[in-house]
Queue: 2 jobs
Job 1
Amino acid sequence: MSPRPIIEPAAPRDKTAIQVIERMMKLLDALAAHSDPVSLKELSLATSLHPSTAHRILNDMVVGRFVDRGDQAGTYRLGMRLLELGNLVKARLSVREAALEPMRELHRKTGQTVNLSVRQGDEIVYVERAYSERSGMQVVRAIGGRAPLHLTSSGKLFLAQDDPRLVRTYATRTGLAGHTRNSITELQRLERELSMVRARGFARDNEELELGVRCIAAGVRDDSGRLVAGLSVSAPSERMQDDWIEDLLSTAGRISARLGHGTGETANAAE
């Protein structure tokens, strides 16, 4: 009987990947410690990395725009991609902070789950919610959960802001895949729906993402007037009430005002 083969542990690819990430972080921290571009030699000394290793990782980060090359040959500085990502995080954090208290108040008025979501590519991502386990039957979305733009009330708010050409591109790219018999899966229907969203100032999801669930959403804007989030109320279809629309719009206005948006109608709605 031949001896059983010895099974070697899997190649340490994960360990190698973690090691690369750790080295990237060391280099980014070293760059962050300087206001001016830093030479490869200085970075190598600061991180205890061999110059060839540091050079290879820096080149990869340059491609990803996490690092930029300095004006002087062989120098590096933090890249614009970090600023872009940082602004995204800052916007989301500030929106969540501004929204939580008004969201809880809206939940107390409606007795239903109130969601805050942001756009990420072709989807919305739920970033905050207000609900109570003692409020009976509710629709609760998981924080971090995702859904297609065209199937959600908040997603329609973002699509309604897009140029019609971008909406057509979105439709081609996603195929407008549906989840229920009520899902909007045709471009012309979607365009009509988005026109109504722009005219009404809020959006609806009529069991388009999930049968038995309806949602209404209003937009949250920052100090520049940019749509940064959707505020929505989700409820079992038979419990959804149009009487909540005014409160929803007012709450979205309050959150927008907290973010510095407007002094006219939006600010008045926030009072």
Job 2
Amino acid sequence: MFNRMKEDINSVFDRDPAARNVFEVLTNYPGLHAVWFHRLSHKLWKCDWKWLARSFSTFSRWLTGIEIHPGATIGRRFFIDHGMGVVIGGTAEIGDDVTLYQGVTLGGTSWKEGKRHPTLMDNVVIGAGAKILGPITIGKHGKVGSNSVVVKDVPDNATAVGIPARIVNPNKNKNKDDAENREKVAQKYGFDAYAVATDNPDPVAKAIGRLLDHMHLMDNKISSLCREVNQLGGEVCQEALPELKVGEFDEDEKAAAKRREGAAANFDPMI
């Protein structure tokens, strides 16, 4: 028992830089208290002391602001940061090294008996205010953004955001390849591709990314066509694309910046 408590305390230091010492963690971390209360109430629940288990759970909610049903299954080094408003349903299953922030709900979508709450695999992180609903599974190392509403499974190593939640990085390797291709095309045509990532939520950045993808595809097709024509005896595509340097536009950008500074300096709020 004491080894588990030591693990819990160490997990706080690992995941909360605001934790200063053991005494502070023992006395001022309601997420830790809620987990310890749950271990006792869960044992009572499994021994069929249902009313007493629920009573301990209710007392824990009153003391910590965190409601964990005594039937929920929780793994090792489970950490609830801040904690207020967290609700964990009775058939929820939580793996090892999982982190929850305040306002998270692991809830159900049905009144039928049986499995109706989520399963969180190892090393999952759930952001503040997120709602994970139904008998779904959040895969290992999965992440859910703050205030998201998740109603479908999240694969391993994926991140889900939004209402309803969508996967923003379903395939990291593919995203990495796409990003590298876009950067190569951007450098070729003199375009600064900073922040044009495959999982960027900015619609303008996404549109630019699509244009770069299209340019990359067309460039490959034209190169293949030119190669075939040259093999048949033609002479096409002999000239290389002119190099376009971003630095050529520095003077224009500096002039525009001076104009903006001048407009800001001349602004009169009394007008």
